[in-house]
Structures are given as C-alpha cells and as structure tokens.
Design goal:
alpha+beta; four-stranded antiparallel beta sheet
Length: 94
C-alpha cells in the first residue's frame, strides 16, 4: 500500500534560504532510498511563512526505514534547530 507523508513547516523570511538548502539536501538523499516514489514542496500563497512537503512512498516500512536513516536524522536535526520546533509528520495511506 502506498503512503503519503505530509510535513507542514513554518519558516520566517530570514530563514527561507537556509531551509531551502536543507530541504534540497534532504531531497537529494531521499532520491536513493528504496521505496521512495516522489515528493513535492509547496509554499502557501496566503501565508508566506508556511510550506508543505508531500512525499510518496511504496510502503509504510519504506518510510520508516527512511525516518531511521542516520543521514536523514542529521539533516532533520539541522532543520528543527533552524526552525526552533520539532518537525511533525502526518502519514496517510492511499
């Protein structure tokens, strides 16, 4: 069963560039992960400080393997530090 992961983040204007760099780094690591299908990053039009990342995975197991990947954890910790909050994930099945 395919799963979609929704990740909503709030970023101040002063951190947009730094977050963009970290998200691109994370995305490049994701491309080589088993079960990764695709992802997209969206910016909310009416709230410029909000963005949403949606990634699609072949299975929950593939997503969980990625969540526990040491390289991902390191980049994610940088993102959490930059934004000042722990990232939360919402997992949905298709």
């Amino acid at each position: 069963m395919t799963v979609k992961i929704f990740i909503k983040r709030h970023v101040s204007a002063q951190h947009v560039l730094e977050l963009t760099v970290l998200l691109k780094k994370l995305r490049s690591l994701t491309l080589g992960q088993p079960g990764y299908i695709y992802g997209e990053t969206l910016r909310r039009l009416d709230k410029k400080d909000e963005c949403m990342v949606i990634s699609t995975w072949r299975s929950l197991e593939d997503w969980n393997s990625w969540v526990n990947n040491e390289q991902r954890i390191n980049v994610q910790n940088e993102i959490d530090h930059l934004l000042g909050v722990k990232t939360e994930y919402a997992v949905y099945e298709e």
